Amino acid sequence: MNELLSILVKSLSNISLWSIADILVVSYIFYKGYMLIKETRAEQLLKGIILLIVLIPISYLLKLDMLYFILNKTLTIGVLSIIIIFQPEIRRALEHLGRSAFDDVHYQNDRESLKKVINEITTAVENLAETKTGALIVMEQKTGLKEVISAGTLLDANITSNLLENIFVVNTPLHDGATIIRNNRILASGCVLPLTSNTNINKKLGTRHRAAIGLSEVSDAIIIIVSEETGIVSLAINGKITRGYDKERLTKILIRIIEGRSKKKVQTAGERVKSWLRLRTQR
Q: Which CATH number fits domain 111-266: 3.40.1700.10, 3.30.70.330, 1.10.357.10, 1.10.150.390?
């Protein structure tokens, strides 16, 4: 017992602050990685991989040669299969990492300008909902949507509720696609969005809703949807959709989301500066 205790004390004494920092960083990376795949197809795959990793050494120790051979080859081939099958999830994870590392918020931090823009958008959405005119409005955030924009018609116009309403009038050339907003400007209309491959979505949701969810899965854009069947206003963010917004509620949630992201960026930048100053002082 004393020998075991001495070994433990000796091991702990050899642990430096850098070792602790290393463990914490690796733990954080694993945690964030798991949160990215949580409640996705990749989560079930991860459980299967962990089971394989556990079974391989067990089969080797028990001299189950055939089982060991099969499991070993399955794991080897599986790595390539994961990259091919789960390309959308891997892409989304890398884009999320890129957004966290390199902040590039397109919206102005001026609260009054932000409120004015959002008011124009929500006024248009309210009027479109009353007339049951289908609409799909995308508010670009950190992730650039150049690929989506290039497939539409460039406008580069000031945001007004009248213009937004006119864009989605039935039988007009641009009404059937998405309208992209960037830098407080209506950048393009008639844009085609990627449809979600999620099979668990409510069957009552139409193509507009599926396109909105699809784009929110691969970007941090905020997408507003107006149903042409019911006039219900929905919001798609980060692969999730919520429904039943009125003008007041939609205005509050949009301001909260955009301002929250801006504040997070400022705090993160401030923390980086403080860390840099601490390192400089220690040197």
A: 3.40.1700.10
pLDDT for res 135: 94
Q: Which residues of the chain have pLDDT under 70?
A: 1-5, 7-14, 34-45, 78-79, 81-110, 261-283
- Lay out the sheet containing 233-237: strands in order across: 153-158, 185-191, 178-182, 135-139, 222-226, 233-237, 240-243
Half-sphere exposure of 121 (CA within 13 A, CB side): 31
Rg of the chain over Cα atoms, rounded to whole angstroms, equals 25
Write out the two tokens for 178.
Answer: 């998405």
Give the residue extent of every domain in the chain.
2-99, 111-266
